[in-house]
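Structure in, sequence out. Go:
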C-alpha cells in the first residue's frame, strides 16, 4: 500500500518526498509553495488541489545536487525534476508550475512519467520537457510563455508517448517532437506560438541518434500561430532559424500519419524559413533525412498565409487523401484526388 503524506504551504515538499521514499503519494493542499522539487524515487505521485489553486514557484529551496536542465547553465532551476537510477511510474498532476528559469517540469532518462492537468506558465526555457525517456504521457495540460517548447519529447527513440488534450500558447514551439518516435499527438490546441507543432529529425553533435518515425498526429487544432521565433539572439526560439506563422511542420520524418487536423489562420509576423500553415521538408543537410512515407489524410488546411501547404518532399513517397486547402505549393496538387493529389479546394 502506498504511503500518503499531505503537505501544506510553508512545509517542504522535498522533505516529504525524501522521507516517504518510493511509492509515496504526496498531496499538496491549496496554496503557494516556493521551492524546486526533485523526484528521485519510483512509483511516486505528486498531486495538487488543481491548477491555479496549488502553485509551485521559485524560492530558496533548491535540492542539493539536483540534475540541471540539459544544455543549460548551472544557475538554471526547473520546477519539478524527475531523474534517478531506475526511476519509473511517476505521476505529477493538478497544479501550476510557474516562473522557473529552466523547465516547469523536466524528466530525464525515466520511464512511465505521467503529467496530467498541470499548468506550466512562464517558465523560461521549456514548459514540460521529457528527454531520453519512454512510456510518458502529457495530457490535459496548459503550457505557455517558454522560450522553446510548451510540451516537448526530446530524443525518445521509442517513446511510446502520449501527448493529448493539451493547450499550448505563447511559446516558440507549441508542441515539439524532437528526434522522438512512436508518439501519439492527439486532440491538442496550439495557438499563438511561432509554430503550433514541429516534428523534427535532426542529428546534433554529441547527442543520441535522431529520427522521427511511426508517429500519429490526429485531431489537433493548430491556429493563430504568428509569433516570430529565431529573430533575436536571446529571444524566442533563439537557437533555431527564423520561424513564424506555421501550424504544423514535418521535417525529415518517416511514416508519420497526419489525420483529421484543422490547420487554419496561421499568419507570420516576421521572417520565416517555412512559408505555409502546413510544411513538409527535408533535414538531410543537417544530418537528418528526407521526409518519407508520411500519410496526410482528411486534414483541413485553410486561411493560412502566404500558403496553406508547402511540400518540399518527394510526393511519390507520401500519401494524400481527402485533404482540403485553398492554396499551396505545388499548386497542381489542388483539385486532384489520386495517388499524387488528394487535395481539394
Amino acid at each position: 500500500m502506498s504511503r500518503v503524506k499531505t503537505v501544506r504551504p510553508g512545509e517542504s515538499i522535498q522533505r516529504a518526498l525524501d522521507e516517504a521514499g518510493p511509492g509515496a503519494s504526496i498531496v499538496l493542499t491549496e496554496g503557494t509553495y516556493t521551492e524546486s522539487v526533485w523526484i528521485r524515487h519510483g512509483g511516486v505521485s505528486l498531486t495538487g488541489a488543481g491548477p491555479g489553486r496549488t502553485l509551485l514557484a521559485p524560492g530558496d529551496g533548491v535540492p542539493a545536487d539536483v540534475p540541471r536542465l540539459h544544455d543549460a547553465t548551472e544557475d538554471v532551476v526547473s520546477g519539478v525534476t524527475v531523474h534517478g537510477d531506475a526511476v519509473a511510474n511517476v505521476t505529477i498532476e493538478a497544479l501550476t508550475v510557474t516562473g522557473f528559469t529552466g523547465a516547469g517540469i523536466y524528466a530525464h532518462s525515466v520511464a512511465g512519467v505521467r503529467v496530467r492537468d498541470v499548468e506550466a506558465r512562464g517558465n523560461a526555457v521549456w514548459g514540460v520537457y521529457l528527454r531520453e525517456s519512454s512510456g510518458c504521457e502529457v495530457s490535459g495540460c496548459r503550457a505557455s510563455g517558454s522560450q522553446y517548447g510548451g510540451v516537448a519529447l526530446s530524443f525518445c527513440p521509442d517513446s511510446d508517448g502520449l501527448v493529448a488534450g493539451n493547450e499550448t500558447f505563447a511559446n516558440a514551439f507549441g508542441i515539439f517532437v524532437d528526434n522522438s518516435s512512436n508518439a501519439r499527438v492527439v486532440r491538442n490546441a496550439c495557438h499563438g506560438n511561432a509554430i503550433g507543432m514541429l516534428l523534427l529529425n535532426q542529428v546534433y553533435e554529441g547527442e543520441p541518434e535522431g529520427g522521427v518515425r511511426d508517429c500519429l498526429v490526429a485531431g489537433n487544432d493548430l491556429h493563430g500561430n504568428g509569433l516570430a521565433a529565431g529573430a533575436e539572439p536571446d529571444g524566442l526560439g533563439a537557437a533555431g532559424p527564423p520561424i513564424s506563422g506555421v501550424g504544423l511542420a514535418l521535417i525529415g520524418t518517416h511514416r508519420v500519419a497526419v489525420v483529421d487536423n484543422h490547420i487554419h489562420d496561421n499568419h507570420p509576423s516576421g521572417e520565416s524559413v517555412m512559408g505555409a500553415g502546413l510544411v513538409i521538408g527535408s533535414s538531410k543537410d543537417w544530418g537528418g533525412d528526407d521526409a518519407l512515407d508520411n500519410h496526410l489524410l482528411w486534414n483541413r488546411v485553410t486561411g493560412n498565409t502566404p500558403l496553406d501547404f508547402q511540400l518540399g518532399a518527394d510526393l511519390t513517397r507520401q500519401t494524400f487523401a481527402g485533404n482540403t486547402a485553398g492554396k499551396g505549393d505545388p499548386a497542381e496538387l489542388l483539385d486532384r484526388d489520386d495517388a499524387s493529389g488528394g487535395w481539394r479546394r
